[in-house]
Amino acid sequence: MYYTGEQCFSCGNTFTDDDDVVVCPDCGTPYHRQCYKSAGECLNHQLHESGEGWKRSSEMNNAVGDDDTAGASSFCTKCLRIYDDPEKEKCDNCGTPLVQVKKIRTDRRSDAQEGGFAKGFEEIDLTKEYMGFNPDEDFGGATLSEVSNFVGTNTFYYIPLFKRMKDLGSKISFNMICLFFPYFYFANRKMWLWALITAFASLILNIPSMLYLIGEELSGMPYKFMQEIASFISEYDDLILSLNEICGFADFALRFCMCIFANWLYMKFILSKIRKMKRNSDMPLTPQRLRAKGGVQPLNILIIVLIILALSSGGYFAVTFLLTFLQSSGVI
């Protein structure tokens, strides 16, 4: 069997002659049939983004040298043949356009030169399992392999990042999506507590702008009491605008904090979940269980959108009702 001895990209287990193996039709990454069915898609996003193809571990080791400037070998994504000529365009066997396979490594510089990168963080090799790191390294109640299986997707980004944080004790990195939509990121990564906290905080900080909007809408209504509410709000325009500026700055500060701390919060979330799984169950902590508990859930983004819309609408009508009640009671 061609894939015997290789590893399933989903569960990490080594293929045997008896395994039912399927491959991604685009990049050639092999999976157990059930693993691919459970994932619903190819998880090797790095190859899809780069346009490269999967290679056997032995072929990758032979095809790429240790010198960063050694260039890249040509590789056929369909029949998996390797060519030494990086300028070759098509496979002699099947005519498929060839891609290049490059070995990715970081500069070997000291902590001071890197401005704080972990000492000994010499090489990241995407052709190796766990990018060449020790899978049994303890991250605080969870091994690197357990963390990797829990992350599920984008491990090539998160594992080196988490290792730097662990080695340096650092909490700061940059997660640009959290600068704009932190609740989407947290919901997608199943971090519901932080998704709800950031969503609620964002809504509260938008109350001044909501008041201004209510005043604008009620001023055009034909009902006298609504116009009186709008007139009452307009009396405090300067205060509302000032509060809106302050809340806008606070909202940006919140998003910036999430931008630089979200990855650290995600790492803490992962470690907490894995430790809890170990405490609460005597069952083996298999890669499948970790992936089911972790990974991403895009449907959660839709759920948090609906929650935000419901809270926004509820808040709008609640504030309008309160103002109407106060006006009818003669308070305003």
Write the layout of secondary structure elements.
Elements: E1 21-23, E2 30-32, H1 33-39, H2 45-50, H3 57-63, E3 73-75, E4 82-83, E5 99-101, H4 111-114, H5 144-151, H6 155-168, H7 177-180, H8 182-188, H9 192-205, H10 207-219, H11 224-235, H12 237-280, H13 287-293, H14 299-328
Antiparallel strand pairs: 1-2, 3-4, 3-5
Helix pairs in contact: 5-12, 5-13, 8-9, 8-14, 9-12, 9-14, 10-11, 10-12, 11-14
Task: Kindly describe this structure.
There is one protein chain. The protein is mainly α. It has 14 helices and five strands. It has helices spanning 33-39, 45-50, 57-63, 111-114, 144-151, 155-168, 177-180, 182-188, 192-205, 207-219, 224-235, 237-280, 287-293, 299-328; strands at residues 21-23, 30-32, 73-75, 82-83, 99-101. Strands 4-3-5 form a three-stranded antiparallel sheet, covered by helices on one side. A two-stranded antiparallel sheet has the order 1-2. Helix 9 packs parallel to helix 14, helix 10 crosses helix 11 (224-235) and helix 11 (224-235) crosses helix 14 (299-328). The model is unreliable at 60-72 and 102-122 (pLDDT under 50).
Task: Output the keywords.
332 residues, mainly alpha, 14 helices
